[in-house]
Amino acid sequence: MGERPDSSPGSDDDLPPLPEDLVTQERRLREKKVKLELSLRDAVTFTLQNNLNVRLASLDNAIRQRDIVIARSAFDPFFNVGSTYAKNRDPTVSFLDVGAGRQGITVNPSETTEYNASLNGEWVTGTTYDIQLEQAKFNRPAAEAGGITAINPVTRTVASADLRQPLLKGAWYSVSTADVRIAQNNFQVSNDEFERVLVDAVYQVEQAYWELAFAIQNLRSREKALRVSREDFENARKRRAVGTFSDNDVTTVESQWVLRKVNYRQAWLLVDDARDRLLNLMNYAGDASLRTAWRSRSDKSYYQEVGILCTSEPDERELTINRKDALGAAFENRPEYKQISTNLKNQTIRVEVSRNELLPSLDVLGRWANLGMEENFAASYESLEGGRFYDWLGGGEFSVPLSNRGPRSRYRNAREELRKLHVQKQDLENTIVLDVDRALRTIANLRLRVVDLEEQVRLQEKLLRDERLKLEVGKTIAYTVSTIENDLISSQTESLRSKADLQIAKADLYRAMGKLLERHQLWVSDN
Questions:
Q1: Spatial CB neighbours of 369, under 8 Å, sequence gap ≥ 6
Q2: Beta carbons of 119 and 104 less than 8 angstroms apart
Q3: What whole-number distance in Å separates Cα of residue 64 and Cα of residue 342?
Q4: Residue 66: which residues within 8 A CB-CB, separation 6 or more?
Q5: How many CB atoms lie within 10 A of CB 390?
Q6: 347: buried, middle or exposed (CB in 10 Å: 19+, 13-18, 0-12)?
Q7: 522, 523, 524: which is closest to 40 by C-alpha?
Q8: If 0-12 CB within 10 Å is exposed, 13-18 middle and 19+ buried, where does residue 325 land?
Q9: CA angle, corner 388, sides to 385 and 390, nearest 5?
């Protein structure tokens, strides 16, 4: 080995110190203003309470529930009451108005006072009804003076009921209650959509949690590698000083030291990104947006002051779910599948209604009225109750459009929409089967991958120890040790990554089966 050139680093004091930003995870955590020891259960609970998408879905669910009330209100009766008073001084030349013997244009004064009350609406059978009570008082003093009327003033009272029942178009329960049934189904669709949003939120937060757990473990691994690399660099420089290491060996070790610093900084970036994603899914900022936090203090991120320690351990239990059971659960529980089945019911109702609109109108109608007339209000009511005066009628009404192209086109469109939903259902069924198959394959592959990578790490650790011993006695070179060390660190990272991926894959399988909420002991109420 040659002598060290003058341009090479000098004593150990010349060794570059650890950069200030490369500190341990625990120290970085202590520097945070907010320190969270977070379990997976805590993260899921916090997310479901605060996640913005969950809030939006909850609001939409409430809207759809009120739509049922709105649809049912079409059958609410209306009560109307009114009163009018009229006074007139009309000119007339008729003796029928003011009595015989009067000549020229005379005045025909009159006063009219009317009261009315009615109750009208529609029943679920399509029957429309209108029940009325009217009373009017007429005062014509000029006619009385002329001997034309026997009674003045006179009060007239009418109690009547009108009914109309469609027999073809717009008839009976199935057509009249279509909007109500569709609103009820829409609420169920909204409830299923709310469940889907919850499932997505739980899956995303579980995925983010294990990503952060991996990032933290990876950071610790990179930190350990960084410190080992620094120690190797120190030892290499000492050994070069005594002539047992060449400049090339020192350069190789120093290159590893620089690479470890790059990897360590990258590991911190991965932690920060994973933390931000998890906190954002949890909506950790609450009602205040991140823009508000930025405007109050623009020098650093709101989440940057939050440190998280993931306290949940990976679930290493082996899943014993076969394909048949997984697919059965998926088609029974997946909210998307329940949604499209309910949408098919809705569209079937719309097809029935649009088919009914093609029919001509055939209505039966009837009216009954009792009448009363006397000098005052009380007497007119007595006359009304006596039943001496009455009106009634019954009949039918038939109408058919000369051109039915509008309803015919709406009916065809409704049928095509129904066909589209059947195609979408088939596509969703294919997707569900593929989702379950993919999740099962992924778990089986990752389970073997975890075992193989753990064994690979064990073997590479042994190989590195042996190679370091060879380096100590000069039977190998630093480059070979560095190569093995790089392979070991890569395998360690892959091993950590595969363990996190296995946890995410399990969550994905439960999501594909529609049982992710049940796995976390969460259930969606139907009301």
A1: 158, 159, 160, 161, 390, 391, 392
A2: no
A3: 14
A4: none
A5: 13
A6: buried
A7: 522
A8: exposed
A9: 90
What DSSP assignment string belongs to 224-262?
A: HHHHHHHHHHHHHHHHHHTTSS-HHHHHHHHHHHHHHHH
| Strand pairing report for 306-310 and 154-166 | unpaired
DSSP 323-343: HHHHHHHHHHH-HHHHHHHHH
Sign of CA dihedral 367, 372, 377, 382: negative
Residue 121 vs residues 70, 178, 438: alpha-carbon distances, Å: 15, 17, 57
Question: What's the burial of 503, exposed, middle or buried (CB within 10 Å: 0-12/13-18/19+)?
Answer: buried
Look up residue 146 and give its amino acid. G
Output the DSSP codes for 94-116: -HHHH-TT--SSEEEEEEEEEEE
Residue 172, both tokens: 């009976």
DSSP 342-405: HHHHHHHHHHHHHHHTTSPEEEEEEEEEEEEEESSHHHHHHHHHHT-EEEEEEEEEEE--S--H
Among residues 108, 103, 70, which one has the least CA distance to residue 88? 108
Distance in angstroms (rounded) separating the CA atoms of residues 97 and 95: 5
pLDDT per residue, tens digit, the chain (527 aa), is 333 333 333 333 444 454 444 445 445 555 556 778 889 999 999 888 888 888 888 888 889 889 999 999 999 999 999 999 998 877 765 655 555 555 666 667 778 899 999 999 999 999 999 999 999 988 877 665 555 556 778 888 999 999 999 999 988 888 999 999 999 999 999 999 999 999 999 999 999 999 999 999 999 888 888 888 888 888 888 888 887 788 888 888 888 888 888 989 999 999 999 999 999 898 887 766 777 666 666 566 777 778 888 998 888 888 888 999 999 999 999 999 999 999 999 999 999 999 999 999 999 999 999 998 887 888 888 888 887 888 999 999 999 988 889 999 999 999 999 999 999 999 999 999 999 999 999 999 999 999 999 999 999 999 989 888 888 887 888 888 888 888 888 899 999 999 999 999 999 999 999 999 999 888 776 65
pTM, full prediction: 0.79
d(CA 335, CA 69): 24
Q: Taking a C-beta distance cutoff of 8 angstroms, is the pair 212, 275 a contact?
A: yes
- The one-character DSSP state at 505 is H
User: Exposed, middle or buried, 521 (CB in 10 Å: 0-12/13-18/19+)?
Assistant: exposed
Q: Is 410 helix (H, G, I), strand (E, B) or coil?
A: helix
CA dist., res. 73 & res. 177, Å (int): 11
Question: 512 forms bridges with which residues in the sheet?
Answer: none
| Location of structure tokens 């006074």 | 87
Would you state the structure tokens that stand for residue 119, as one six-digit string?
A: 């109750």
